[in-house]
Write a structure and sequence with these properties.
- The chain folds into three domains: about 1-80, Four Helix Bundle (Hemerythrin (Met), subunit A), CATH 1.20.120; about 100-290, 3-Layer(aba) Sandwich (Rossmann fold), CATH 3.40.50; about 295-435, Signal recognition particle, SRP54 subunit, M-domain (434 Repressor (Amino-terminal Domain)).
- Helices cover about 60% and strands about 10% of the residues.
- It has 21 helices and eight strands.
- An eight-stranded mixed beta sheet has the order 3-2-4-1-5-6-7-8, with helices on both faces.
- β7 (about 265-270) and β8 form a beta hairpin.
- The longest helix is centred in the last third of the chain and has 23 residues, at about 405-430.
- Mean pLDDT is about 80; it is low at about 295-310 and about 430-440.
- The protein binds guanosine-5'-diphosphate (GDP) and magnesium ion.
């Protein structure tokens, strides 16, 4: 990915005091390749590289940063800029009902996103939401949205059999007015490919409904195709924003970088899971970090190199890799490492989202670290290796030894179990590699 390519760049540029046309040329070639591999559209890549070059050349390298790191900084900033810089909020400031029209190809995630967005607006903006389906072409489509509506407790507009999309839309609009809905989300039909009939229909719905938001829903996994579709929709409809779905899939991130450039409209929401809570406001800075690799892994590794006992980290990485069980001694060692790395909260900020969510389930805060160590210290080596032998009498002894209550010992054991699960997850993912790379 972009990160591994860029870390090579950092090495080659080490020791140069300034970014020059010469020393960044190779680096930029790498960046360009990485972007193309990530499925970013060619014109976008060209413009991007030109901008990075302009910003980077002649830039003084400040403080402890190497020129390579400085370049990575410029690239990071430009990736954010490419996605619009700031988070773009949904616009609801109009006389209610604020109509949100959903457009996009079949399978892009319009219906699912309609439900998710309704839930999000109800929970975060305290809005009364009406869900409306104008997808009369597939018998199951209206029902699908109705089901979502009942799952989240949103109101659902009852479509009469035989009603045409335009009739549904205007009936729903009066319904929303008389029932005092703040927001009305209109789901539409999609086709497998763009065709005139579909564009005409959604264009007519747009004219009739005068939506405050016309959101183009697009599947991130479609890469270049997504870009072409986006272009066609942007030409046919006055879009106001984009919902990029299926970011949880193994998309290469390119669509996120190209969409604004092609449509001129910002990504407002991202679909990050199939479930109804899986819609999030889109943050360009977070996406940039994601595209550049795993969270701020570079920063984490740097700090780690200062604080962590390398050999211990290596040992743990090996152990995880060999699939041997993670025991309480390892758990304690992790706590010590966390202390060295500036505490749990500092570390969490730098982990990629998925891992940090897993870690949050463990619910460890900095204050607990000291007490946890005391409890584990009060255990015998055998108990640390095999926590399952800890019955009531042993727990009482340990609690007394550590100066805590038995409940606290129990809580620690529960956290340990969570951590064990987390370690399994991490060893499946990239954590092993990450720990090993801390060696530097
Ligand atoms: P529509 O044809 O545009 O209405 O698409 P649907 O809303 O029916 O979604 C098509 C499929 O994509 C369904 O199986 C959804 O569950 C799935 N889907 C939609 N959004 C997401 C997402 O953000 N993540 C994942 N994993 N699946 C999604
Ligand atoms: Mg649908």
């Amino acid at each position: 990915n972009l990160t591994s390519r860029l870390s090579g760049v950092i090495k080659t540029l080490r020791g140069e005091a300034r970014l020059t046309e010469n020393n960044i040329q190779e680096a930029l070639r790498e960046v360009r390749m990485a972007l193309l591999e990530a499925d970013v559209a060619l014109p976008v890549v060209k413009e991007f590289i030109a901008r990075v070059k302009e910003k980077a050349v002649g830039k003084e390298v400040i403080g402890s940063l190497s020129p390579g790191q400085a370049l990575v900084g410029v690239v990071h900033q430009e990736i954010i800029a490419l996605m619009g810089g700031e988070k773009a909020d949904i616009n609801l400031s109009t006389v209610p009902p604020a109509v949100i029209l959903m457009a996009g190809l079949q399978g892009a995630g319009k219906t699912t996103s309609s439900g998710k967005l309704a839930k999000w607006l109800m929970e975060n903006k305290k809005k009364k939401v009406l869900l409306v389906s104008c997808d009369i072409y597939r018998p199951a489509a209206i029902h699908q949205l109705g089901l979502l509506a009942s799952q989240i407790g949103a109101d659902f507009f009852p479509v009469q059999t035989g009603q045409q999309p335009k009739e549904i839309a205007s009936a729903a609009l009066s319904f929303a007015k008389t029932h005092f809905h703040d927001v009305m989300i209109v789901d539409t039909a999609g086709r497998l490919a763009i065709d005139e009939a579909m564009m005409k229909e959604i264009g007519e719905l747009e004219t009739l409904l005068k939506p405050i938001e016309t959101l183009f829903v697009v599947d991130a996994m479609q890469g270049q195709d997504a870009v072409n579709t986006a272009k066609a929709f942007a030409e046919a409809l006055p879009l106001t924003g984009v919902i990029l779905t299926k970011l949880d899939g193994d998309s290469r991130g390119g669509a996120a970088l190209s969409v604004l450039h092609v449509t001129g409209k910002p990504i407002k929401f991202a679909g990050v899971a199939e479930k109804l809570t899986g819609l999030e406001p889109f943050h360009p800075d977070r996406m940039a970090s994601r595209i550049l690799g795993m969270g701020d892994v570079l920063g984490l590794i740097e700090e780690a190199q200062r604080g962590v006992d390398q050999r211990e980290a290596e040992k743990l990485a090996k152990k995880m890799k060999s699939g041997k069980s993670f025991d309480l001694s390892d758990f304690k060692m992790q706590f010590q490492q966390m202390k060295n790395m500036g505490g749990m909260s500092a570390m969490m900020e730098k982990l990629p989202t998925q891992l940090s969510q897993a870690a949050q389930n463990v619910k460890i805060d900095d204050k607990v670290i000291g007490r946890t160590e005391a409890i584990i210290n009060a255990m015998t080596p055998q108990e640390r290796a095999k926590p399952e032998i800890l019955k009531a009498s042993r727990k009482r002894r340990i609690a007394a030894g550590a100066g805590v209550t038995v409940q606290e010992v129990n809580r620690l054991l529960a956290q340990f179990e969570q951590a064990q699960k987390m370690m399994k997850m991490m060893s499946k993912g990239g954590m092993t590699k990450m720990l090993r790379s801390m060696k530097g």
